[in-house]
Design a protein that fits this description.
By secondary structure, the chain is mostly helical. It has two domains: 58 residues; 84 residues. It has seven helices and no strands. The termini are far apart.
Length: 184
């Protein structure tokens, strides 16, 4: 029942001492498991021995060093390259933003980001419509959501997306729909 570790030759006495303590702890645990299994009393409860944080840290170092020697960290993606998305500015939501972008999730995130993305594609969305009334409704709905997002204090970045002038946007929409119309 004893677990044996394959020892890696190491010239560092601190690491050898840490490995020795870890091996002794494993032997103690195995002996306690055997004693509990041999006991006829089903209510025998083994209380775990507390491990010092220093021993745990040295054990982690030993395990990581062994994994490095085995080559388990070789050929990792982005090895030797900068981590994408790190710009030097502190952004507490960097991980969440990267997941949203990588997974192409929609409807998630702060209102400022959602409205900014919608503002980018609003002209294309309007160009798909054939009825001026629907275009006006879409613009009014967009403006109402921008104003509503500015009023709410939910945290996150401020909403800087401008509202759209409905009449000016309808004129631009008509110009784009006209034969030979160009985007402005």
């Amino acid at each position: 029942m004893f677990r044996r570790r394959q020892r890696v030759p190491d010239d560092d006495p601190v690491r050898r001492a840490a490995q020795y303590r870890v091996d002794r702890e494993i032997e103690r645990e195995d002996a306690a498991d055997d004693a509990a299994a041999d006991a006829d009393d089903p209510e025998t409860v083994r209380t775990p021995r507390r491990v010092r944080p220093e021993d745990r840290a040295q054990y982690v170092d030993v395990v990581i060093d062994q994994a490095i020697r085995r080559g388990e960290f070789d050929d990792l993606p982005l090895a030797g390259k900068p981590i994408p998305g790190l710009t030097g500015r502190h952004d507490p939501d960097w991980w969440l933003k990267s997941v949203i972008e990588r997974e192409r999730l929609t409807g998630l995130g702060p209102p400022a980001m959602l409205l900014k993305a919608e503002d980018h594609g609003l002209d294309d969305r309007l160009d798909q419509e054939l009825d001026e009334k629907v275009v006006r409704e879409l613009l009014e709905d967009f403006n109402a959501r921008v104003v509503d997002a500015r009023r709410q204090l939910l945290g996150g970045p401020p909403v800087v997306t401008p509202t759209r002038d409905v009449e000016a946007e309808v004129v631009r929409w008509r110009a784009r729909r006209a034969p030979g119309g160009r985007r402005s």
